[in-house]
Amino acid sequence: MAESPLVDVATDRAVTTITLNSPANRNALSSVLVGQLSQALADAAADEQVRAVVLTHAGGTFCAGADLAEALGRGLSPEEATAEGARGMVGLMGAMLRMSKPVIVVADGHVRAGGFGLVGAADVALVGPDSTFALTEARLGLAPSIISVALLPKMTARSVGRYFLTGEKFDPATAERIGLVTRALDSSAALDAELTAVLEGVRKASPQGLAASKALTTAAILADFDAHAQARAAESAALFTSDEAREGMTAFLSKGKPSWDTSGR
Could you give the dihedral angle defined by the CA atoms of residues 61, 123, 163 and 160, in that order, rounded to the nearest 10 degrees? Predict the structure, then answer.
């Protein structure tokens, strides 16, 4: 039986739009979604008629990160599930960074966990007024290990020193100010207009010019990615299977507090 499509793909005037369309699980990165998204990115990269890729979403969440529940439901152990999720995240970020064509993320919804990796790996990130952001890994006994490879080169040092550690939720204007996104727009109409302006610029550029220009912007990030991505993936897997992470996830799912939480709320 064919897999249900969780990713929609459409091409118009040399631009391929890839839409994450699994709103029932907040566009979480299940094995099926990762496979379909990876294939869509590969197809766009190989198509000489495609000049750029837009990555967007259906529903109120851009991407909630790994779908561990789906992996466990397939009979994987927690260790196998986290390792699979890590490989998927590394693969997607690497594909976006290595593609010779610009990748533009357009999000007007919640961005969490691996969703940050997709935003960080994009060349341009445009977000709307309904977007929210939170790096809550430390609250769960985890760390934003893999996605840090794409985030650290783009976010300011002071902002990662705050938001990696506190897990606070922040808004689109803050995301723009700290370098996480390119532009934060205050309405859907403004978001559409900004995307149109970016795509018109891309459509005026030659394929060779785009490829050479993108290579300049991603060289340093890719060097760091190639040097550290696998180590960060191993670190992530080790954290996920720790006692603290198990306690943190249990508390999160039960809407309780883990033993280390001494906050007033």
Answer: 170
- Count of beta carbons in the 10 Å neighbourhood of residue 118: 28
CA nearest to 92, candidates 63, 71, 135:
63
CA 14 vs. chain centroid, Å, equals: 23
What one-character-per-residue DSSP string does 67-100 give?
-HHHHHHTT--HHHHHHHHHHHHHHHHHHHHH-S
The Cα diameter of the chain in Å comes to 57
Contact 135/160 with Cβ under 8 angstroms? Answer: no
| 162 within 8 A of 168, measured Cβ to Cβ | yes
Domains identified in the chain, total number: 1
In the chain, the amino acid numbered 82 is T
Those residues with Cβ within 8 angstroms of residue 170's Cβ, 6 or more apart along the chain or in another chain:
132, 133, 134, 163
- Which residues form the domain of 83? 7-188
Strand 169-170 and strand 132-134: pairing? antiparallel
Nearest to 214 by CA among 45, 90, 88, 42: 45
Q: Decide if 199 is inside a domain.
A: no
pLDDT tens digits, one per residue of 124-165? 999 999 999 999 999 999 999 999 999 999 999 999 999 999
Least-confidence region, from 74-78, 83-87, 116-120:
74-78
**Residue 1 covered by a domain:** no
Residue 128 is assigned to a structural domain of this protein: yes
The domain that holds 64 is classified in CATH as 3.90.226.10
- 107: in domain: yes
Q: Is the pLDDT of residue 77 over 70?
A: no
> Confidence class of residue 1 from pLDDT cuts 50, 70 and 90?
very low
Summarised one tens digit per residue, pLDDT across range 99-114 is 999 999 999 999 999 9
